[in-house]
Amino acid sequence: MSTVKRAVDDGVRRRLRIESKATFADAIAWFGVYVGPRSRLRSEVKDQEEEYCARRWLIAMTYVDRLRLPVDVEMSSKLGQERLRLPDMVLRWDDGEALGVEIRQATTQRDQEYRTRAAKSDEPPEPLPNGASFDAHKNAVISNICEAITEKAKKGYGGVSPRDLLLYVGSESGAALLYGGDVPALMSEVLQAVRERARSAQGFRLLHVLWGEAVFLDVFGNTFAQVDLSANYANDWWAWLRAQADHLRARRLKDIDYDNLAEELEGLGRSDKRALTSHLRNLLVHLLKWRFQPEMRTPSWRLSIQNARDEIEEAVAESPSFEPTLDELTVKQYPKAREDAANEMDIDADALPQACPFELDQILDRKFFPDANP
Known about the structure:
Elements: H1 7-10, E1 12-18, H2 24-28, H3 42-63, E2 71-76, H4 78-82, E3 89-92, E4 98-106, H5 109-120, H6 134-153, E5 163-169, H7 172-178, H8 183-198, E6 207-211, E7 214-217, E8 225-228, H9 237-249, H10 258-266, H11 270-292, H12 299-318, H13 326-345, H14 360-364
Parallel strand pairs: 4-5, 5-6
Antiparallel strand pairs: 1-2, 2-3, 3-4, 6-7, 7-8
Helix pairs in contact: 6-7, 6-8, 11-12, 11-13
């Protein structure tokens, strides 16, 4: 993921480039993998939830060859969504074509109230009672999907057209239904009821629904498709790897994912290393901006710094062999981070130090925020 250029101006909080299907897994790296607890900053959790949904939709679209590549994927910032009226995600192609994707969770009012209380309280509230009947849960999911379509249709947008709508069934009722009955038949029944009640996506080009490990593409259209993400290479690398190991041990050669397995063996660890490098570069950019443009400091800058530190810490914890490479990576990435920071601050790169002004311990220290340039 590259550092976002002039984020204050274009309303983008995160941007990534997907060049081809062969490099797709590397391109999305850790994008959208983690969603923190609701007790953290609510805006941060909302961003993470949007990226989680966007990741899974991108995987599904690529899997069925419906995502034209190469493409730039942009996740809108709060500024972009509120002031520039951008949808949550925008896809931009090199020929100038663009597609907006609005993301919303289809959930019950009771679930929303529960999540709000959990976000505001140090002590988690009592769990939601799960005494509703199976039909009641099913009807709640149908109603919430239909209501979400109607509510999203009321929102105005800027210059991005056409737009798709991606709904995420993450409610108590949605979870309850996944653990009872014939799940494929149940999902089919719910979606059929939604088609009958909503009849259209009401102003959106296509409607997509994310529910559990399944992504339903083009719910109202003639190109409807269901994609199972439970052991997809790009979505869950570890589950995919274990499945490939099982196939090899059992000599089930017809079930082996040859292309991706060959790619993984050839470049083992490559995507993790690239993700680590990207997070380190992004962290350096924001530390430079924090020090040399103090009048522009915002909570989102602080959040970006801490998020990058979290990602680096998690990468090193999962692969300790990365830790000795951090000094070398810092030296290599600083010149690029210096240029990125200068572009974002709209100043000449010569105004910033030639060598990194921060020690590695400072860079990774969650309590360290550099003072303004004297």
